[in-house]
Amino acid sequence: MKNIIRLGVNIDHVATIRNARGGAFPDPLRAAIIAEKAGANSITAHLREDRRHISDSDIANLIKNISIPLNLEIAATEEMVEIALRFQPKSTCIVPEKREERTTEGGLDLFNRTKRLRLYVDELSKKNIRVSFFVEPELHTIDMAKDIGVPVVELHTGSYCDAKNKEKVKQHLNQIEVAAKHATSIGLECHAGHGLTFDSVPQIASISSITELNIGHFLIGEAIFSGLTPAIKKMRSIMDESRKKIIEKKYK
Q: How many other C-beta atoms can be found within 10 angstroms of the C-beta atom of residue 96?
């Protein structure tokens, strides 16, 4: 099928469960291998500065043992960039990070850290690591990402997923669609993620300008009830069906 949409599975919260008790189980690498077999196109892992879930050894194990690309999420710090340069994942997504937050809150501020971000993008790109920024679906932010030099932006879908009424959902969805179209119009590849579920993913997967979704917390939570393989296969199926519908509509 042409114009497929890729699925990146974030395995951070397998490590969260492991770290709640200590020890080696459950193993994030095992989750990554299961995800690959179930239809994931890539694995995403966020190495936080406080190592609250994924660890450096997890990244080493993933790099060594999975055959699909690893997308390493990192904060914009010298330490994290040095780690990315050492492990050399296929891609790196630079995300905002606050020590006190439970999960990533909002998009990256590109305007107050432009010089540093440009340096990091240059360093990572020289090692053939594809860099993306996790950003709000705002046109001026996307323009700044282009100016800094990244080839990819990942749009934050959290506000859309958290919206409490139909009007707000429609508003946020429209904002994401406009932003995605703008990103592709200026030569950027566009991804999206954060908070997506079986119910909220069809509308995002139906935006043809978006080429990849990164989904984690919901899938790991759903795995408790249905198993990881069925959860990923169902998400993959919903995404594919949503993309198929826009293709069929286009050629009617």
A: 18
Whether 177 is a known active-site residue: answer no
Containing structural domain, residue 120: 6-250
1 lies in some domain: no
Task: Decide if 194 is catalytic.
Answer: yes
Side chain identity at 144, as an amino acid letter?
M
Measured CA distances, 33 to 30, 197, 217, 222 (Å): 5, 21, 17, 17
Catalytic residue among 13, 46, 53, 191: 46
Select which of 53, 156, 172, 194 is catalytic.
194
Residue 136 lies in a domain: yes
Q: How many structural domains are present in the chain?
A: 1
pLDDT digits (tens, 9 = 90+) for 206-250: 999 999 999 999 999 999 999 999 999 999 999 999 998 876 665
> Is residue 156 among the annotated active site residues?
no
CB–CB of 117/148 below 8 Å? Answer: yes
Read off the pTM: 0.94
Q: CATH number for the domain including 215? A: 3.20.20.70
Write the single-letter amino acid at 244: K
